[in-house]
Specification:
A: alpha/beta, Rossmann fold, B: alpha/beta, Pyruvate-ferredoxin Oxidoreductase, domain 3, 23 strands
């Protein structure tokens, strides 16, 4: 069900560089449960796109099936959306991206949609370094079918349906192993962290995973659950703090030497990282792996930008397609005509 | 013993070991037949194997121009000891058996009613060559040489073919000609030649070409404007996307940058392959995938999404023998029902049935126009026989004045003028609505594509009446499709007889030959070839106009017959099954026999 939102707008609403208000980046009213972490993520996506002044039609949002995959209805209402089939968003996003390399692709998925039914497609989208922002709204359970454990539920975590005994799949660790060029983890309740990460992911040229722990208030927010709000807040730890500086803007903040690192992304934007541990460098894959494993051993939820390689080649670069989006090629670019065909006929006699 | 005698009308079969380079030698033989101006058909009968298992290649030469397969082998060239016992048995009485006589033929394989022509191929090779690979490859050329002598084929034609073949490796021309001469000389010294079966040069192939259907489809996709191809390897469709890539690499490279005006993705599975194709089409690029039956099974869910969300997509199904893995290297037309009604819920899909390489090219190209126009999956249904065997075909043609039909798509200007855009509003009353491509207009024309029920403005709804309205509009679109998809072909002026036949795809050549055979028996039938599904008025009229119709197809369950009964609500008694499903292409003699038998049974 979609509620109608009031169309009243305060005349003094702030506008971004393109003249759009935040309202222009909102979607329909959410039909998820009150307090659902996913709605906060939708809010962060809205805020990030507003602040980055992304023209709404230059972004396409894609999803699979599940609570998480419903959310694209609730943000960026002026952007095309595609709610595909369960676990298959990566392939649809791959096709969309191949058709037009100039748009931004926001893939939204859940832990069931990615870590179970869609594992195959997720893995291969990473391998191909598809230029997509891939947000997993990770609540450790199947909300839409009433709370079954998902493959990201931790061993021993208790949901309303009982205790999970099976090993959890750690999506950031897996993505690192598969060669993802941007890997982050965050928490739906921490917009200050999440918004710059989304901006950085949008600016990143290549596959950008943000695994967002997003508690399910209805089925997995109880005592004993490792994805409950209270548990996450108590166990969260940060690897680094990311400040996103848009292209052309000057870095204004100063950090004590040795604690920060600046990274230039593909589109000219800058990431200013405040490192919270000595010798930490998110460009070092081995260090990232080690930190993830160590945090896990300490039962900490490590968040922040865990790994980035700002200079990778995406799928288009790898297969060598033209700069013009393929969906803009004209008939004369595409059809070789009859004269060529006659030559081909000659070769077949 | 009476030996078979014939000019330009016989069947030669080669029995080889898979992976020994025999295919190129055999193709050379077929090409020589073609260049001697003789109609022929060639079938590869190959195993699911890379090296070692028996493989056969069969060439039917037909001065009358019959291009279907014919049973009965007049001349067997047996190079494979593994299959020798079976090969000896399969020669027609009065036929000829060419074999490697380096080792003596065991007496149990000596038949009284066939002629043996032993050529010590291995012995000649051992004498002439030292390199083991050369011994194997030139052995093939030796038997081709021997055959050219035995069958009175023009040696100059072979020389021309060899010159063409090794244009880029000129050093190989002379040795190949020499190997052929070794075979020719042996025959000249030891046998009377030519045999009573032989060839004479004619001028019967005109400007025809030799091409396999997969290559023609791949090229058709280039001409049809496809820019994104996604696929997962599966026999017998693999060479289709490979052909697309090959032609695109030749014809779609940006001259200045050397970059590609196309993308090919080898996906992780068939689900992803069609997902990529759907995503690309949704985003305004023409995209397709190709697969075989097992792949179509996997693609069902996505096909339902494309049907219901109304996204163009082209899928070419190169059918093979099912069910399950079935006989993966044998042909069948057994995905008809699967394809027609693929996916859960009320779904139906447009199917196209090309019958030769020229049609493969044209229909594959057309399929992109139809997909964009109708905003639904278009399934091009070919099979292993058409896809992987080279066929004699009219030359490919492209009308340069023809323009792509991109279908109903609003551009930025049209959206700007619009008060409210409705993705699923049937403003023209033909059931086809206007779509928009992402990236068109900053604030107008966006919509949410989904597999769930929605209203005319693409808003999610569970209102039953809105759902019914939408499902009925899809039916209206279905009716619109009937008249714009390729129409059936008829082989007579009007309807002349009470009984008729229906066929499609690779059954065509044998069905037409069977009509001639039946006419010689005094049986006259009207004929209709189906080119598409859903069935148009013309198909319905043909079915109505005849008392009995033989539906000829290559599957066990008479799937096309079921489709006709189901969609046209005809009396099942009226449609008589003529079925071949042993994995080998159907023959005219089989069709003739079946029809005669079923006529007698009914009368």
């Amino acid at each position: 069900m979609t509620y109608v939102k009031p169309s009243f707008r305060h005349p003094d609403l702030p506008k971004n560089d393109l003249g759009f208000t935040k309202k222009d980046y909102e979607g329909a009213i959410s039909t998820l449960c009150g307090g659902c972490g996913h709605d906060s993520i939708s809010g962060s996506i809205t805020q990030a796109c507003f602040e980055m002044s992304i023209a709404p039609h230059r972004l396409a949002k894609l999803s699979g099936i599940g609570c998480s995959s419903k959310t694209p209805t609730y943000f960026l209402g002026n952007s095309h959306g595609f709610n595909s089939v369960h676990g298959r968003m990566p392939s649809v996003a791959t096709g969309a991206n191949l058709a037009n390399r100039d748009l931004i692709y926001m893939g939204v998925s859940g832990d069931g949609d990615t870590a179970s039914i869609g594992m195959g497609q997720f893995v291969h989208a990473v391998r191909r370094n598809l230029n997509v922002v891939y947000i997993v709204m990770n609540n450790g359970c199947y909300g839409l079918t009433k709370g079954q454990d998902s493959a990201t539920a931790d061993v021993g975590s208790i949901s309303k349906n009982g205790m999970n005994q099976f090993q959890a799949i750690d999506l950031p660790a897996l993505a690192l192993e598969l060669g993802a060029s941007f890997v982050a983890r965050s928490f739906s309740g921490d917009k200050t962290q999440l918004i710059p990460l989304i901006k950085a992911a949008i600016s990143h040229h290549g596959f950008a995973l943000i695994d967002v722990i997003s508690p399910c208030v209805t089925f997995n927010n109880n005592t004993g659950s490792t994805k409950a709000y209270d548990y996450v807040r108590e166990h969260i730890t940060t690897a680094d703090v990311v400040d996103y500086v848009p292209p052309g803007e000057e870095i204004t903040m100063d950090y004590p030497e040795g604690t920060s690192a600046d990274l230039t992304l593909h589109d000219g934007s800058m990431l200013q990282l405040t490192k919270l541990a000595p010798n930490w460098d998110p460009r070092d894959k081995l260090a990232a792996m080690q930190r993830i494993y160590m945090s896990r051993a300490k039962q900490e939820i490590l968040t922040g930008l865990l790994y980035i390689d700002p200079n990778t080649q995406d799928l288009h670069d790898l297969i060598g397609t033209v700069a013009t989006p393929l969906n803009e090629l004209l008939e004369e670019d595409l059809c070789p005509g009859n004269a060529v065909l006659e030559e081909i006929n000659r070769g077949l006699r | 013993m009476r030996s078979v005698a014939a000019v330009n009308d016989f069947v030669v079969r080669f029995a080889n070991v898979n992976g020994t380079g025999s295919a190129s030698a055999n193709n050379m033989f077929a090409k020589a037949v073609f260049r001697m101006g003789l109609p022929f058909s060639a079938k590869n009968i190959f195993p699911s194997n890379i090296q070692g298992l028996p493989t056969w290649y069969e060439v039917r030469i037909s001065e009358k121009g019959y291009l279907g397969r014919r049973d009965g082998i007049d001349l067997m060239v047996c190079i494979n000891p593994q299959s020798l016992p079976q090969d000896v048995k399969s020669v027609s009485s009065g036929g000829y058996f060419v074999y490697d006589s380096t080792k003596i033929l065991h007496p149990e394989f000596v038949r009284e009613d066939i002629t043996y022509i032993g050529i010590p191929m291995m012995e000649i090779c051992l004498r002439e060559y030292t390199d083991p690979r050369q011994r194997q490859l030139f052995k093939n050329m030796i038997y081709v040489g021997a055959l050219s002598m035995l069958l009175d084929m023009d040696f100059e034609v072979f020389k021309g073919i060899i010159a063409d073949e090794f244009k880029k490796k000129e050093k190989l021309i002379a040795p190949n000609i020499h190997a052929m001469e070794l075979g020719r000389n042996y025959v000249a010294e030891h046998y009377e030649y030519p045999l009573p079966i032989r060839m004479e040069t004619r001028d019967l192939v005109g400007d025809s070409i030799l091409m396999d259907g997969n290559s023609a489809c791949g090229l058709g996709a280039v001409y049809g404007g496809a820019t994104v191809a996604a696929w997962y390897p599966i026999t017998p469709s693999t060479s289709l996307v490979q052909a697309f890539e090959k032609y695109a690499n030749r014809l779609r490279i940006d001259k200045e940058t050397g970059k590609k005006k196309f993308a090919v993705v080898q996906a992780e599975d068939e689900l992803a392959a069609i997902g990529v194709a759907i995503g690309a089409n949704w985003n305004g690029a023409r995209s397709f995938t190709a697969t075989s039956g097992p792949g179509v099974s996997l693609m069902n869910e996505f096909l339902g999404l494309a049907y219901f969300a109304e996204i163009p997509v082209v899928l070419t199904d190169v059918q093979r023998s099912g069910p399950s893995t079935g006989m993966p290297t044998r042909t069948q037309q057994s995905d008809i029902l699967l394809a027609a009604y693929a996916s859960h819920g009320d779904t139906k899909h447009i199917l196209l049935f090309p019958a030769n390489p020229k049609e493969c090219f044209e229909i594959q190209a057309l399929s992109f126009d139809l997909a964009d126009r109708l905003q639904t999956p278009i399934l091009v249904m070919i099979d292993l026989d058409l896809g992987m065997n080279e066929h004699l075909s009219p030359p490919l043609k492209w009308d340069d004045s023809r323009k792509y039909d991109w279908g109903k798509v609003y551009d930025a200007e049209e959206l700007e003028q619009m008060a409210q855009y409705g993705r699923y509003l049937d403003s023209d009353g033909d059931g086809i609505t206007y779509r928009t491509i992402p990236g068109t207009h900053p604030t107008k024309g966006s919509f949410f594509t989904r597999g769930t029920s929605r209203d005319e403005y693409a808003r999610y709804t569970e209102d039953g009446s809105v759902y019914v309205r939408n499902m009925n509009r899809l039916l209206k679109k279905w009716d619109t499709a009937k008249e714009i998809i390729p129409q059936p072909e008829f082989y007579q002026q009007g309807n002349q007889h009470k009984e008729g036949i229906i066929f499609f795809g690779t059954t065509t050549d044998s069905a037409l030959e069977a009509l001639d055979l039946l006419r010689e028996d005094g049986i006259e039938l009207d004929a209709m070839r189906l080119l598409s599904f859903p069935f148009s008025k013309q198909v319905e009229d043909f079915v109505q106009a005849h008392e009995r119709i033989y539906v000829i197809e290559q599957n066990r369950d008479a799937q096309m017959r079921s489709l006709l009964i189901n969609e046209l609500e005809v009396n099942p008694d009226k449609l008589i099954r003529v079925l071949n499903f042993d994995g080998m292409p159907i023959t005219a003699a089989y069709i003739q026999g079946e029809i005669k038998e079923k006529m007698v049974a009914e009368v």
